[in-house]
Design goal:
This protein is of the alpha/beta class. The protein has one domain: TIM Barrel (Alpha-Beta Barrel). The protein is 41% helix and 17% strand. The protein is built from nine helices and eight strands. The chain has an eight-stranded parallel β-barrel with strand order 1-2-3-4-5-6-7-8, surrounded by eight helices. The longest helix has 18 residues. The radius of gyration is 16 Å and the shape is globular.
């Protein structure tokens, strides 16, 4: 993804704000199960708490060799020195994020169901593009739906890594991997599971199935 790093393909774990005090341990379990990227996503208004949590997560992720991406919040990403940021349609633009985070930061862009948006993002210097929701999602039930064929088209036209998101399970995720998804972004499929490590491992196995 990043111009200075080579990352494995696999599960992209997005934190659930309902984890509360379990956050750090839950993320450690997800990484143990094979998560290759972690995104801190919390829309709460407690800035001090969010900065504390992001700082703790960054230390954990650095120790485990996994990048920490901050969802939407450029000020938070800058404050904690995160590895990068994920931006949606209503967030700060990519160029502004790049100026503040520097040339080596990882910047991902939500592209929903739009190949044109992904192409523009790649040209502008995005490190990855994300498509979805591919399936009904409890996290964003009103999210626009994207067809799996979009991944195939994007894989043919883009060289940046492709992230698939939205209602992904180990059962339906295989089709997304086959269509070209480099990473499967998952919230509840990992963090709502009774065994987080095992849940993450099930997604990771889609990229390295047993013989």
């Amino acid at each position: 993804m990043s111009r200075t790093r080579q990352w494995q393909r696999g599960p992209y774990a997005i934190t659930d704000s309902r984890l509360g005090e379990r956050l750090l341990d839950a993320v450690a379990q997800a990484i143990a199960g094979g998560a290759v990227v972690v995104q801190y996503r919390d829309k709460g208004g407690d800035t001090a708490r969010r900065q504390h949590e992001a700082t703790q997560l960054l230390a954990l992720c650095r120790h485990r060799g996994v990048p920490l991406i901050i969802n939407d919040d450029l000020a938070l990403a800058v404050a904690v020195g995160a590895d990068g940021i994920h931006l949606g349609r209503e967030d700060v633009d990519l160029a502004a994020a790049r100026r503040q985070l520097g040339p080596d930061a990882i910047i991902g862009i939500s592209c929903y169901d739009s190949l044109a948006r992904a192409q523009a993002a790649a040209i502008a210097g995005a490190d990855y593009v994300a498509f979805g929701s591919f399936f009904p999602s409890s996290t964003k039930p009103q999210a626009v739906r994207a067809p799996i064929t979009l991944l195939r088209e994007a894989r043919q036209q883009l060289t940046v890594p492709l992230v698939a998101i939205g209602g992904i399970t180990p059962e339906n995720g295989a089709a997304l991997v086959a269509a070209g998804a480099d990473l499967l972004a998952v919230v509840s499929g990992i963090f709502a599971a009774p065994d987080i490590t095992a849940a993450a491992r099930h997604y990771a196995m889609l990229y390295s199935p047993p013989p």
